UniProtKB/TrEMBL annotation, chain A:
Organism of derivation: Devosia insulae DS-56
Transmembrane spans: 28-51, 86-107, 119-140, 167-193, 214-235, 280-298
Name of the protein described by the UniProt record: ABC transporter
InterPro entries the UniProt entry points to: ABC_transporter_permease, MetI-like, MetI-like_sf
The entry's keywords: Cell membrane, Membrane, Transmembrane, Transmembrane helix, Transport
A GO CC term assigned to this protein in UniProt: plasma membrane
Length: 304, 275
C-alpha cells in the first residue's frame, strides 16, 4: 500500500508529468458515478437543508425560518411520528439481533434439515415488502384473520393487531422482523463459521459448559457480525416506509405513523417545505444514532 | 450433538418453520386460486373450486393489461439500472482501490454517506423536474443508480484488492490503455462479484416500492410493486386477484433465489466478517 500511495500522489501533485501507472487509473473513471451521485443525491440533500426552512410550492419558496421544525415538535400527530420511528427502529433491530443470533446458532449446529431451514428463513428477505405487508394484513384481520381464528379455536380472544392503536405499530414491527430476520441470520452464520474451532476445543478442555462457551467464545468473536446487524437493521428500521404504508398507512389515526410516512403524507398534501423538514429531521435522527453507535461498536472491536 | 437430539431438535425446528414461514406463503397461493367469495373470507382452507387460470387472466387484463405494462417497465428499469451500476460502480471501485490519492478519503466518506443518509424526497423531485426527468423512466433509472452506487462500490473495492497489480503492469507493457486494461483485463476477473452485484441489486430494484411511488407516478410508468398498491385500493373485496398479483410478482425473485442462492448470501453478508 505504501508504494501505491507514492505512485499515486505524483501525478496529483503534478498532473502534466507523465507517470507510467497514473495513466492506468485515470481519475475520469470516477466521473459517470460522481455526476449521477452529485446531481441526484448530494444536491437534493444540500437543497433539503434550505427548503426545510421555507414554505415551498416547488415554484416558489418563502423563507419562514425554523417554523417547519417547530411544527414537528408542536403538533402531536407529527411528534408521534418521531417517537414511533425510534420505537420501530429499536424494536426491529433488537429483535433481529436476538432472533438472528439464536437462529444462526441453531442453523450452524449439526441439526437435521439444516439446508431446508436456512433456505426457508432467508427467502422472505427477497419477497416484495408490500406483498408481505398485504398478506399479513389479511392474516391479522381482527375477526376473520388466520391468527385470531387460530387463537379463538384455543379459547383466546386475539387483539385487533392492526386496528387497536396500542398494538398497530408493534404488529407492523413484528412483520418487519419476520421478513428481515433471515438477513440477520445469514450474517451471523457467516460470523459464526469464521470462528476457529480450536477456541471451542480449548474451552472444552478447560471444562467450559456449552453455556460458558457461548458467552466466552461465540459472543465476543461474533462481534463484527453483531455490529453489522445492529447498524444495518437500525438504519433500515429508522427509514422504513413501505411495510408501514402497506399495512396501516400510519393508522389507526396516526398511531403507527413514522417520519417516513409523515414525509409522504405531507408531500401528498402539498406541504413540500414541511415534508422536506421531515427529511432533515430523519437525517439528523439517523446521524445522531448511527454515528455514535458505529463508533462505539467499532471501538469495542479494536479494544479486543 | 447426539444422534437423537439432532433429530428431535430438527423436527421441532422444521415444524416451527412450517407454521411461521410456510403458512403465509401457502396462504398467498391458496387465496390466489380461490373464487371471489371464498377469498373474501380470508380463511386458511382448501379452495372449494380452483380458479388459477381465471384469476390469472383477470389480473392480467385488469385496467388494460396494467400488470403486463408493469412487468415490462420493471424489467427495463432493473436491467438498465443494474447494467449502469455494474459498469460505473466497478470503475470507481477499481480506481479507488488501485490509486489512493487525496480524493480517496472524500470518496470513502461519500460512499458511507450514501449508505446512511435517507434521500431527500421533494428536493429530488425538484431536481428531476428542472432537468426534465421527473415521471420518466430515464430519471427513475438514474435514481436507482444513484441510490445503489454506495453498496456496489463497497463490494467492488473489496474485490479489486484481491486482483494482483502485476496483471495491470503486464497489460500496460503489452500496450493496453486504461480502457482496455479495465474492460478486457480487470472486469472479466471481477466476474464473481459482478454476479453478486447483479443478483442483489436486481432483487432490490425489482422489489423497490418507495422510489417509483415518488419519482415515477402515472399509469404508463407503473412498476410491479405499484400495481399491488393500485389493486389494494381498487379491489377491496377482490382478494383473490390481489393475491394472484402478489404471487406473480414473487416468482421472479424466487427464480433468482433458486439459481443464485450462494451469490445473494455472499453479497449480503459481505463486510460482516472482517479478518
Amino acid at each position: 500500500m505504501a508504494v501505491a500511495v507514492a505512485e499515486g500522489s505524483v501525478p496529483i501533485a503534478n498532473p502534466r508529468r507523465k507517470s507510467r501507472t497514473a495513466g492506468l487509473y485515470p481519475s475520469w473513471f470516477y466521473l459517470p458515478a460522481a455526476i449521477i451521485f452529485a446531481v441526484l443525491f448530494m444536491l437534493p440533500t444540500f437543497a433539503s437543508l434550505f427548503f426545510s426552512l421555507t414554505r415551498w410550492t416547488l415554484q416558489k419558496a418563502d423563507f419562514i425560518g425554523l417554523e417547519n421544525f417547530a411544527q414537528f415538535f408542536r403538533e402531536p400527530f407529527l411528534f408521534q411520528g418521531l417517537v414511533n420511528t425510534l420505537i420501530y427502529g429499536v424494536v426491529t433491530s433488537g429483535l433481529k439481533v436476538v432472533l438472528g443470533m439464536l437462529l444462526a446458532l441453531l442453523l450452524t449446529s449439526d441439526i437435521f434439515g439444516r439446508g431446508y431451514l436456512r433456505a426457508v428463513v432467508f427467502f422472505p428477505v427477497l419477497v416484495s415488502t408490500v406483498g408481505v405487508g398485504i398478506t399479513f394484513t389479511a392474516m391479522m384481520h381482527p375477526t376473520q384473520g388466520l391468527i385470531n381464528e387460530t387463537l379463538a379455536s384455543i379459547g383466546i380472544k386475539g387483539p385487533g393487531w392492526l386496528t387497536d392503536p396500542r398494538f398497530a405499530l408493534y404488529s407492523v414491527a413484528l412483520v418487519d422482523v419476520w421478513k428481515g430476520v433471515g438477513l440477520a441470520t445469514v450474517i451471523y452464520i457467516a460470523g459464526i463459521v469464521s470462528i476457529p474451532l480450536e477456541y471451542y476445543e480449548a474451552a472444552k478442555i478447560d471444562g467450559a459448559t456449552p453455556w460458558q462457551r457461548f458467552w466466552t467464545v461465540t459472543l465476543p468473536l461474533v462481534h463484527p457480525a453483531t455490529a453489522t446487524v445492529i447498524i444495518l437493521s437500525f438504519i433500515g428500521g429508522l427509514r422504513s416506509f413501505d411495510m408501514i404504508w402497506a399495512m396501516t398507512k400510519g393508522g389507526p389515526g396516526f398511531t403507527s405513523d413514522v417520519i417516513a410516512s409523515v414525509i409522504y403524507k405531507q408531500y401528498q398534501a402539498g406541504f413540500y417545505g414541511l415534508s422536506t423538514a421531515g427529511n432533515v429531521v430523519l437525517f439528523i435522527m439517523v446521524a445522531l444514532i448511527i454515528v455514535p453507535l458505529s463508533m462505539l461498536l467499532n471501538r469495542q472491536e479494536t479494544d479486543r | 450433538m447426539r444422534h437423537a437430539q439432532r433429530y428431535i431438535l430438527g423436527g421441532i425446528a422444521i415444524a416451527a418453520s412450517i407454521v411461521v414461514f410456510l403458512v403465509p406463503f401457502a396462504f398467498i397461493i391458496l387465496t390466489a386460486v380461490k373464487d371471489r367469495r371464498q377469498a373474501a373470507t380470508r380463511s386458511f382452507d382448501w379452495p372449494t373450486s380452483w380458479h388459477f387460470w381465471d384469476n390469472l387472466v383477470e389480473v392480467l387484463r385488469t385496467q388494460d393489461y396494467m400488470l403486463v405494462t408493469a412487468f415490462i417497465n420493471s424489467i427495463i428499469l432493473t436491467v438498465v439500472s443494474v447494467t449502469l451500476l455494474v459498469v460505473f460502480g466497478a470503475m470507481v471501485g477499481f480506481v479507488l482501490q488501485r490509486r489512493p490519492s487525496r480524493w480517496t478519503p472524500i470518496v470513502n466518506f461519500l460512499v458511507l454517506a450514501g449508505l446512511i443518509i435517507p434521500p431527500a424526497v421533494v428536493p429530488t423531485i425538484w431536481v428531476l423536474q428542472s432537468v426534465g426527468m421527473f415521471k420518466t423512466m430515464h430519471g427513475m433509472i438514474l435514481i436507482e443508480v444513484a441510490y445503489g452506487l454506495s453498496f456496489t462500490i463497497l463490494l467492488f473495492r473489496a474485490f479489486v484488492a484481491t486482483i494482483p497489480r502485476e496483471l495491470d503492469e503486464a497489460a500496460i507493457i503489452d500496450g493496453a490503455g486504461p480502457l482496455r486494461l479495465f474492460f478486457q483485463v480487470v472486469l472479466p476477473l471481477l466476474k464473481p462479484v459482478v454476479v453478486t452485484v447483479i443478483v442483489v441489486q436486481s432483487v432490490a430494484i425489482f422489489n423497490d416500492f418507495t422510489n417509483p411511488l415518488y419519482y415515477l407516478p402515472g399509469k404508463q410508468n407503473v412498476t410491479v410493486q405499484l400495481t399491488l398498491f393500485n389493486f389494494q385500493g381498487q379491489f377491496n373485496t377482490s382478494l383473490h386477484l390481489l393475491f394472484m398479483n402478489i404471487l406473480l410478482i414473487t416468482i421472479p425473485p424466487l427464480i433468482v433465489y433458486l439459481f443464485f442462492n450462494r451469490q445473494i448470501v455472499a453479497g449480503m453478508t459481505a463486510g460482516a466478517v472482517k479478518g
